[in-house]
Amino acid sequence: MSGSSASAAGLRGFSGGGCRYSLLTIIIWTVVGFFLVVHLVSLYSRKDNNIHDDVSSSDQLQVVHQHQHQHLHLHHPVVHQLVRVEEEILRMPPPRKRSPRTSKRRSRKPIPLVEEFLDDKSPIRHLFFPGLKTAAFGPTKDMGNETSYYFPGKIWMDTEGNPIQAHGGGILLDEKSNTYYWYGEYKDGPTYHAHKRGPARVDIIGVGCYSSKDLWTWKNEGIVLGAEETNKTHDLHKSNVLERPKVIYSEKTQKYVMWMHIDDANYTKASVGVAISDNPTGPFEYLYSKRPHGFDSRDMTVFKDDDGVAYLIYSSEVNSVLHIGPLTEDYLDVTPVMKRVMVGQHREAPSIFKHQKVYYMVTSWCTGWAPNEALAHAAESIMGPWEKLGNPCIGGNKVFRLTTFFAQSTYVIPLPGVPGAFIFMADRWNPADLRDSRYVWLPLVIGGPADQPLEYNFGFPMWSRVSIYWHSKWRLP
Prior knowledge:
The chain is of the alpha+beta class. It contains eight helices and 27 strands. Helices cover 18% and strands 33% of the residues. It has one domain: Tachylectin-2, Chain A. The termini are far apart. Strand 8 and strand 9 form a beta hairpin. InterPro entries: Glyco_hydro_43 (IPR006710), Glyco_hydro_beta-prop_sf (IPR023296). Pfam families: Glyco_hydro_43. Keywords: Glycosidase, Hydrolase, Membrane, Transmembrane, Transmembrane helix. Belongs to the glycosyl hydrolase 43 family.
């Protein structure tokens, strides 16, 4: 405000009269208008690399139609059903009882909902982790008209009637067999804590694998990469940590390649591990671990692009930066090329996907096992720069949206048959009992304007926003 006042005073002193003042005002607004027009033109002139500067008017019309087509799927009848907004009302418990002496000193304030979520003795814990008898779903349950529905947060059973153990995982669509394979951490063991508020972990059991034709009925294919029981120096010794396994297929070597986060019990090793197999159901042969590009690596994922180039994306530099770099042609190592993105933003749990030549990513803050607000990002190149699109969560309630529905992202896969629609995979971690962590699968739709401006420029990105819609139950089309 003070700067504006000073400028106005200067103008009045300079003008000396209404005519000169009006002329100067016109000049100033002309210059401002010119820069605004230039800026708008620069924003709306983004084109794909295949479109040249000298395109004809018919080519420009085709580009407009392509932009319009990006939003047509929002009116698809299936998508219309998936994007409906559901609200959740959670009744908070009364304030905890305190001793009479303490009650005189402090008022009884409600405990924050996130603390209730983390408290395994909370009276509303059943709202976050419903019990097996009343809240299990899957092919072995008699579900009547609710067969094939997803119930985020409830216990998901496999074809043998056991809870699925595939935490922090990812999906591989094997085109040779047209079968989906779900790989994840097998955590069927007791939870340990380094200290009272330290990191929770379980002994390494291995990587579980499940197969499916419909993304709902999952057959347990067993542990495809098992723990080392006796050799304490081995990366996979049961006392260590194995997290976030992801598998991609190499056409060049005809091998299935698994990448994972490898660590010790205190999370100081901070490395990636690599394993290979001739079959999607294993067994996988463990090869080695390393710190990629010489940096620490914790939460990570891999992404295979349309041209067959695969990338490693990992949280590094004490979780303050994300690193992205291409893998070698056989997918068994990283190349020397690496870009630091989202510097100083403290993002983890990266989940990358692609739609109409634009790369999207969902990440979370670094708050340990406590759930937090997700952010969506977009880029024209996977190597960046990446721009924020805002919080993608819609529905539930305010606390649900600010905690990613009390879950953390792990993977995103295309929703079969519906362009622009995806399945957002997340884990609802149970730090008191990690084997009882739940799966939160929800519809993700790309469309509509982004709700967060560019970080280093005026205006909003030209790509569409990412929306994840809360449903207490939903099903695929």
